Description:
Number of strands: 12
Structural class: alpha/beta
Radius of gyration: 35 Å
Helix content: 55-70%
Strand order of the largest sheet: 6-9-10-3-11-12
Shape: elongated
Strand content: 5-15%
Amino acid sequence: MARNKYNVDETLDQEFSFQHFKRAFVYVKRYKKLFFGAFFFSLASTILGLLMPLFTQNAIDVMIPNKAVGSLIWCGVALVAIVASQAVCNRFRSRCTALAGQAIIRDIRRDLYVHLQDLPFDYFDSRPHGKILVRIINYVNSVSDFLTNGLVNILLQMVSLVIIAVFMIAVSPKLSLLVFAGLPVFAVYIFLMRKKQRRAWQLQANKHSNFTAYLSESINGEHVTQSFSREAFNQNINTELAQEARKSYLHAVTLNHLMWPTTMMISRTVYYCIYLFGVIWLRNTITVGTLVAMTSYANRFWNPIMALSNYYNQMINTASYLERIFQLMDEKVTVTDPEDATPLPEIKGEVDFDHVVFEYEKDRPILKDISFHVSAGESIALVGPTGAGKSTIINLVSRFYNLKSGTVSIDGHDIAHATLRSIRSQMGIMLQDTFIFSGTIMENIRYGRLDATDEECIEAAKRVYADEFIRRMPKGYETEINERGDMLSAGQRQLLSFARTLLSDPKILILDEATSSIDTNTELLVQEGIKQLLKDRTSFVVAHRLSTIKDCDRILYIDNGHIVESGSHSELMDLQGAYFNLYTSQLTND
């Protein structure tokens, strides 16, 4: 999928086909016992209901003329028993479909989530996260309802049609032909409307996805919205997207609702013909009881057809959701273990970039023929203007993206042929966007190493000088913090993230603007912890605050995808080139 945002409709890579339903039935097959149970109880309820017109016919034609009071009483008891039995069957049927439906929801969401964990960064970079969430939440719910209740009812209604047809033919073959005569008209209507309905629901899915994407973005950015007093402007955007979603939904529903009056018109015409021809034939071969029974059966015959028309509408709706669910499932995992991948052995930390070319978008390279060598235990600082490619380099060391050409090697092993787990498990990464998870402070520190003891977590926090502010929290290390750690300052969030990284004891350490939000006093303390952390450990440090990287073994100045300068702080200052100008300008501004 191309880059997308909240006001751009998504395009489908593959149009709908019944292969989507075939794939969906894989989930249904896992719970076939529940489906058979639901179908059995539904069928039993239907057959019991079909017996009722026979009792009515017998009562009108035989019992009442013969004044058989006792038989009428037993007939009433039988009818009550049928209704009670139907209630029991419907109860068990509902339980079976509910269990199957929830199991399907769980399985589809699990498969989607597992696949999401494997997708590369560029997938999440290129679309609003709300458009991903709407697939996993809303679309899966709708699909599950069709695959449970819808599927069982479609099978039931089709079987019911056959059974009712048999009962009708047994009662009156002539009147049965009148009932069947409306079917060709109904089939023509379905054929003419199917494409319009599918396109309408595809549009509705797009507009609903757009609205959800903007809503998710707005919630995440609410602090910024209020800071810049954009509430009224954002409300207008929200209203416009909501109106588009409403308009598309009403259009799709209008097309759906045309099905019901069309079916009703055909069925009522059939009823009229039954009465008309029944009266004509009444003197000869048809009794009043037969006419009443056939009218009841005709109603029962067209009720499943009307139900099937509703399920057909639901199927069209479900199809638009399945297209997007399977589009996500079929999204290629471009950054994955190749077939010949082998685990990277315990690394020392030697890193080589050999003629690396990388691009996020085709024919727009970010790194252009980058080559450099890092010895084990060496600390490398990456500096340069915004967008030069500094963060890209450290992302490639962790193999978050695939190269266009060239190689990145660790200890002489091309990481393109190493398992991702073996690479990333030996790295400590602090990215520029610090993320704190909901839970306790202790759980956040332990996130990257689940077997760590409380003492080890506390020791990591002490080394980065986070222990002091943590102990001032209401419950210390057991203090609950919300998603993204909004109750913490930016500096405190980064200190927690720093402790989390330190605890994992990485062989290669990556710090991307790790001290950008820490005040000067805190930064001085953290630098002492960083010195201990960097000792005898290969590290890559990206920082705009050049005072924080003066002690690195080597500094690479990156500009326009190239390494412009390389050397220690003193060497680059003596060179009086790009790094010298950047450093002196910061001193002047400070």
